[in-house]
Amino acid sequence: MYISQPDPDLYKQIHVFDKQCQAFTFVRSGVEGDRAWCYFKNGVPSPTTREDRNSSIRPRW
Description:
Blueprint: H1 8-16, E1 23-27, E2 37-41, E3 53-57
Antiparallel strand pairs: 1-2, 1-3
């Protein structure tokens, strides 16, 4: 998914409302191309540490 404002907090707000989205990874522009990207995930993968990326899981309410 591409959104015109490369802001990981914006993606975090969007993924909270998608019931199938269990986690996401935000990739800053310049890492995988000219644009920032967000990968929505329907599962929660094992955590990894990578520069230029922010990840989050769905809050358990």
